[in-house]
Amino acid sequence: MSKRNLYLSNTPAEEALVRFQAALKPHIAVKRENISAVDALGRVTGQAVFARYNSPLYNCAAMDGVAVVCQNTRGASESNPLTLREGEDFLPVDTGDPIRPPYDGVIMAEELTQVEDGGVAIRAAAAPWQHVRPVGEDIVAGEMILPAGHTVRPIDVGVLLSGGAAELSVRAKSTVAILPTGTEMIELGDEIGEDSIVESNSRMFEGLVRQGGGDPTRFSPTPDEYDQLKSALQKAVRDFDMVLMIAGTSAGREDFTVHLLRELGEVVVHGVAIKPGKPVILAVVDGKPVIGLPGYPVSAYLAYQNFVAPILSELTGRTQEDLPAVKATLTRSLVSSLKHREYVRVKVGKVGDRLIASPLARGAGAAMSLVRADGFCLIDQDVEGVEAGAQVDVLLSRGLSGLERTVVSIGSHDLILDILADLMPEISGGAGLSSAHVGSMGGLLALKNGECHIAPYHLLDEASGEYNLPYLKRLFIGEGMALIKGVGRVQGIMVQKGNPLGVSEIEDLPRCSYINRQRGAGTRLLLDYKLKTLGIDPGEISGYSREAATHMAVAAAVREGGAQAGLGVLSAAKAMGLDFIPIGEEEYDFAIRAEFLELPHICAFIAALKDARFHERLDELGGYTIRSAGEVIRVDC
After folding, report:
1. Which of 98, 276, 345, 538 fits a 20 to 30 Å CA distance from 373?
2. Is-cis flag, bond preceding 102, omega within 30?
3. Among 222-231, 345-354, 376-385, 525-534, which stretch is predicted with the lowest mean pLDDT?
């Protein structure tokens, strides 16, 4: 007579999982492989992926119409229409057509009136670069498209290809053997006896494993015969990364699974305190996880969610979470058309006890905003917009628990934010970094309004000649604040390779076409300070009012000839192969409320600043110093 398994334990589920993970930890190793971006859907990136190309690759028309030299349209008005001749004054263009010198703007077809001889009349002057998508508007060569540990979505595949990342490193798929057991089990289509059961649980697990990023192989049912079960299990352990045995885990006389696992390896837990689903077996055989699942479908499903899914996530690096709808506080007012229900892409993070939603680019061509987005803020039809500070509905495209472990950064842009975002999950086991680029002053105001954890900024106080601290003391009077020291970085003038105009100092900018940073950006304020010191009127600089949101966007415009000069950091110039004229070193730091310093994800952020891998990456970029990176200075405001 076969012995019964009457000694099932009743281990709490959380404890059982922790014990099982601890037993597996010495054996789990990450395996990677290189694959085509076309085949990357659902795979988990093994390392960060960077763009090789700009998108768009050239300055192109954003509308159907005519390309013009904007200077030549001055004076046009409703009362004084200006007639333009094809080939002399304009060039017909369709959306996506290249815009090449001397043309520097597009007038929409709807704003044109046909006149005799094929000409057109216009009733308003064209502003430089209106309706033109500049090179690199969406993706800039050298910027990070995806961080390590990211599950590739359909939109990501498109952006990878647009950015020239044809191949990427991904975590190798974990192979999972699914072994249904039971003499009574038959395949669908087999002859059915009076005591037969059509085996179906394994098909459910096939789908769950595939959904979780694994590579399942399902075997036909093995009868309840000890030697056959042992042979099937040994082969599965040899050939696969993980094994699921279905049924045979309880106290029946022919429930052999636990005896097999004790003979071949270590049974960590047999029996857990969940109902249904108690007779679960968590074992390790030859360093591989083997999980015995109950035969009843509901029990099996619950056991899978509690134990198989977390272990599969560790093997594949893929997070399995429901995607809820949440209420969040909007950081910026949004205006919307009454004609549509609009889905605005947003970054979402938890700051204090509030979820914060920061709108991203809304342009139809801004595919990278889909990659960066954590969800969508819904603006219903017949609503003109939403005010900043309002509570909005957000459909999340990431799990809520991930957002709660995310550092929300709003402020000045720098390439180091990409590096930190890439390192933090590895350093902390799940913490992330979400950044929105609104300039130094915009970041400090967001911090003031409780909309972020940290505000990266680099602001020179003209009176004292000191960076950053004076602004913190002036803007946060009576509040407990701190400064996390970041990096020193070299600012300078970026020009095309070879410096064809012979630019050597700020005084040379009036003879260049220029591209500026947005209002409130520290780089913009630095330029204004230099111009004021030198007595140069900003109006003397052609392109002073043309703005870009990041250093890399400025560098891309200079490299592609959209501008002859722009102020930025050495790392951006180096990444784009530009010449660089240094004008000084500045301090790029992070303002934070003191109350946030003990948050686990903030601690992970500080640890990343101090990490040797971060310092090595900075050396590769060039133009940075790390004398005090990660040092925390509490500020008496």
Report:
1. 98
2. yes
3. 376-385
